[in-house]
């Protein structure tokens, strides 16, 4: 990736080291965890051509930045909720934070398509991505209601919201390959991964 790849990889490495070297025990720990996730998305974007011009039919720079920001925010929300994993009492704002991030992400994707900041994102290309994100947001809201009512243990809630990342990633990939023959394969692959993750969660409890 040249100089951009070196910078992105170097910054990501510093954030990871900062987290593992003690940042996880500080107040900024959840934010550092979010930066690790968002930074990994940006590193992949750099290696795929960002910040150069986007290939025809690809979402491009604006979508890459939204993906990284969305990953950062969602990971931050999950990590904040995980602070209550031991106590088992999750405040409402932490329980619903992952769902709020997913709703904001869906809104951001629609805004990119509506404003033309990502020209390749036609309504037809956006639809499968929004379906995945909307499904994930609905599940996150349902899980938050259950954990708040005491019908879902906090560790299981954390595990469930982590697994919802599979649907979010499916949305981004579906967005990138919309209009190609790869789209049906991507949809089936991610649905299979989701079902496999749910089955595995029955044997490997919590986060």
Write the layout of secondary structure elements.
Blueprint: H1 2-20, H2 29-47, H3 61-82, H4 92-115, H5 123-149, H6 154-163, H7 165-177, H8 182-201
Helix pairs in contact: 1-2, 2-3, 3-4, 3-6, 4-5, 5-6, 5-7, 7-8
Total helices: the number is 8
What class, by secondary structure content? Answer: mainly alpha
Strand content: under 5%
Beta-strand segment tally: 0
Residue share in helix: over 70%
Radius of gyration using CA atoms only? 17 Å
Shape: globular
For the terminal residues, how far apart are their CA atoms?
Answer: 34 Å
Low-confidence stretches: none
Query: Average pLDDT across residues?
Result: 84
**What is the H/E order?**
HHHHHHHH
Q: What summary fits the major beta sheet?
A: none
Overview of this protein structure:
The two termini are 34 Å apart. Helices cover 74% and strands 0% of the residues. The mean pLDDT is 84. With 207 residues, it is mostly helical.
Would you summarize the structure shown here?
The chain contains eight helices and no strands.
List keywords for this structure.
mainly alpha, globular, single chain
